[in-house]
Amino acid sequence: MSKKAIILAGGRGTRLYPYTVAIPKPLVPVSDTPILEIIIRQLADAEFSEIVLAVNHQADLVRAYFGDGEKYDLRITYSLETKPLSTI
Fold first, then answer.
1. What is the pLDDT of residues 4-62, one digit of tens each?
2. Which residues have CB under 8 Å from 9's CB, separation 6+?
3. Cβ–Cβ under 8 Å, residues 82 and 55
4. Closest CA to 36 of 65, 73, 56
5. Which residue spans within the chain are E strands per DSSP?
6. Which burial class, exposed, middle or buried, applies to 30 when counting CB atoms under 10 A from its CB (0-12, 13-18, 19+)?
7. pTM beyond 0.85, yes or no
């Protein structure tokens, strides 16, 4: 059975300002690793096969960093929010 996760990663990260001026919130590091990479690695370890990243703010940087997920041995696709959808 394949497992699929959807991660909401489109926020502007206003509470993390000024760190999020140059990088999107999902790429803000914890120690030396972006927080979203920690989550993706945990999902890969839990045998998830596909992750959908819902992105908006600086989506091109998130996509450039994670690509198609090959380096994590899973598939990453992107759902681009055409406008900010606010907080859940």
1. 999 999 888 888 888 888 999 999 999 999 999 999 999 999 999 999 999 998 999 99
2. 24, 25, 26, 36, 53, 54, 55, 62
3. no
4. 65
5. 4-8, 29-30, 33-34, 50-55, 75-80
6. exposed
7. yes
